Amino acid sequence: MGATDEGEQVTVRLTGEAAELVRSAADSLGVTLEDFGAEAMRRHAADTLADRRLFGATDVAWKELAELLGGPAPDEAGRLRELLEDGPDEEAR
Hints:
The chain is mainly α. It contains 5 helices and no strands. It has helices at residues 16-29, 33-51, 59-69, 77-86, 88-92.
């Protein structure tokens, strides 16, 4: 897939309803259908790849993270306990 400076052409086939939706969205932003589609595909591709990234951690770091996630932060523990004891109606008052 060698893209050139001019870009790579991608053809997309949409149903009538989907095409109208995409066209309306592009018009609402005042951009061309081509620019709208290219930006939408770029964003979706970036989000898709970001969701699939792996993050490594040492055993020590992983254990520390697990301990932190195991309960509320020390400075929030009291407030959380109050909220849990009072219930949601008490917070609204």
